[in-house]
Amino acid sequence: MLGNAFPARAPKTLSGADFPKAVYVPCPHCGQLMNRINFAHCSGVIVDVCRGHGTWFDRDELREIVEFIRVGGLEVSRQKEHQEIKYEREQLKSERVRYGHSELNGVSFSEIERVYGLSAARGLLKFLIKE
Questions:
Q1: Please, are residues 16 and 46 in contact by the beta-carbon 8 Å criterion?
Q2: Which of 12, 81, 93, 121 could bridge to 44 as Cys pair (CB 3.0-4.6 Å)?
Q3: H or E segment at 99?
């Protein structure tokens, strides 16, 4: 099983000053510069992502991600995202009360909430299930 050969370590906590200077690298397949993404938005593991060809790992990044997941980092990230969605919904409801109706610029708040939820779910699935 991936990751069982090494004992689990606590996830890295990096401040902005601890990150190395961003170096964008081209995709090995198409040659386009890839995006750099902090895995789970809080792991401290920066991976290279090509929209068309998936995620590419540098040396030790996959091991660091497995360790992050093993010590519960992914669950913490999910809880944080859940809290952010909950906060956004509360903000939308507050705006609804403030403006005294259930629409903002012709778009219903239930539609906005549905779109936010679908967008968050799609983003998480795309990130976790890369081809």
A1: no
A2: 12
A3: helix 73-99
